[in-house]
């Protein structure tokens, strides 16, 4: 009898300590909030599914489930879709929300599955996912998009065709505004066009200094880079970067008119 009373007193004391503990209160509040959010989430999905079920037109009904999938992490919603293409797209959307490549494996069409893998690579920013794609086209698309998202030009090396690899470098350079990436482009004129694009957009004359020089014509174009920026910035100081005396004089004359 005494032991039982002692246990009850100890239990009451522990409960009192928990209630007085501020961390315990925060944890309890957090759990309650999480449960409420989950209940609302599943309630909305359930309500949406019921709404879709009432639609008679099969294509419109499938579109309705696709709309639900855009904000869902539950692949069960896709089981209601009749059209196989729409069903695969539904699974891709859910997989992307889940950031779970395993859901992609539920997709029947090979190309749609590859697209799903590529989507997972984008949302996770994980280039290893691109390597798991067996199809060359989708693997390269994956590396190209991820190179832009992560601003990592070295991912472009996974692209087989040189022309597309150069385009990848160009796109990464535009995204990152890094003229050094332009210099990875194999065709000199395209590399300089990339550099000029960044200089023009950033209005930063120091970018002209990255110009790839292989001939006298290239030196002239580099000077024109400075001259054009001097005009657009309305800044005579930019003319100082010009080497050729004739082009520098023309640049200075623009501000003496």
Which helices and strands, and how do they pair?
Elements lengths: L1 H19 L1 H32 L4 H12 L14 H15 L2 H4 L5 H15 L2 H5 L4 H15 L11 H15 L2 H4 L5 H15 L13 H18 L11 H9 L4
In short:
With 257 residues, the protein is mainly alpha-helical. It has helices at 2-20, 22-53, 58-69, 84-98, 101-104, 110-124, 127-131, 136-150, 162-176, 179-182, 188-202, 216-233, 245-253.
Q: What does this 3D model show about the protein?
A:
By secondary structure, this protein is mostly helical. Helix content is 69%, strand content 0%. It has 13 helices and no strands. The chain has helices spanning 2-20, 22-53, 58-69, 84-98, 101-104, 110-124, 127-131, 136-150, 162-176, 179-182, 188-202, 216-233, 245-253. Helix 2 (22-53) packs antiparallel against helix 3 (58-69). The longest helix is centred in the N-terminal third of the chain and has 32 residues, at 22-53. Mean pLDDT is 86; it is low at 36-46.
């Amino acid at each position: 009898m005494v032991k039982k009373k002692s246990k009850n007193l100890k239990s009451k004391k522990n409960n009192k300590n928990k209630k007085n503990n501020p961390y315990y209160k925060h944890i309890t509040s957090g759990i309650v909030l999480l449960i409420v959010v989950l209940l609302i989430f599943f309630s909305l999905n359930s309500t949406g599914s019921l709404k879709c079920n009432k639609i008679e037109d099969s294509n419109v009904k499938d579109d309705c489930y696709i709309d639900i999938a855009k904000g869902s992490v539950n692949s069960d919603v896709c089981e209601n879709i009749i059209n196989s293409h729409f069903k695969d797209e539904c699974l891709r959307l859910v997989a992307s929300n889940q950031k779970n490549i395993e859901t992609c494996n539920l997709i029947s069409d090979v190309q749609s599955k590859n697209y799903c893998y590529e989507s997972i690579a984008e949302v996770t920013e994980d280039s290893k996912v691109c390597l798991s794609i067996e199809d060359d086209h989708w693997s390269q698309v994956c590396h190209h998009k991820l190179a832009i998202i992560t601003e990592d030009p070295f991912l472009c090396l996974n692209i087989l065709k040189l022309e597309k690899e150069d385009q990848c470098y160009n796109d990464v350079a535009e995204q990152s505004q890094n003229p050094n990436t332009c210099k990875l482009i194999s065709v000199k004129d395209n590399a300089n066009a990339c550099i000029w694009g960044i200089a023009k957009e950033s209005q930063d004359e120091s970018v002209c200094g990255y110009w790839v020089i292989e001939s006298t014509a290239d030196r002239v174009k580099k000077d024109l880079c400075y001259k054009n920026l001097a005009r657009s910035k309305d800044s005579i100081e930019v003319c100082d970067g010009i080497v050729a005396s004739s082009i520098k004089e023309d640049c200075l004359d623009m501000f003496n008119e």
